[in-house]
């Protein structure tokens, strides 16, 4: 994951890509972006972004609210959310908000400030996240 520019007024957001490390370990081959936080709202704050694969192979991505706190409650935006996707970027049909008008289907949970730590509980396999720090 990385901070990606290109938003209106030099704004940025979190993006996630995948590729293969070259044989000489010097570059990525076949790189493609599988997820983009939209709209891009950050001016350099609160990107969040931890990646966790669960036991079923789903990819969870934590996303900061870009220091625009009310957006964490807006279900038409990806700021302040944890999203769940497949490793190719597709959205699972059983995500909580799939099929709801005006709601981003990637959303797994919302109302987060700046989730910078995430892990699976080793006994239950449930995703845990915390708002600051990778530990």
TrEMBL record:
Pfam families: GSDH (PF07995). Residues 1-135 form the Glucose/Sorbosone dehydrogenase domain. It comes from the Bacteria. InterPro entries: 6-blade_b-propeller_TolB-like, Glc/Sorbosone_DH, Quinoprot_gluc/sorb_DH_b-prop. Signal peptide: none annotated. This is PQQ-dependent sugar dehydrogenase. The lineage of its organism: Bacteria, Pseudomonadati, Pseudomonadota, Gammaproteobacteria, Pseudomonadales.
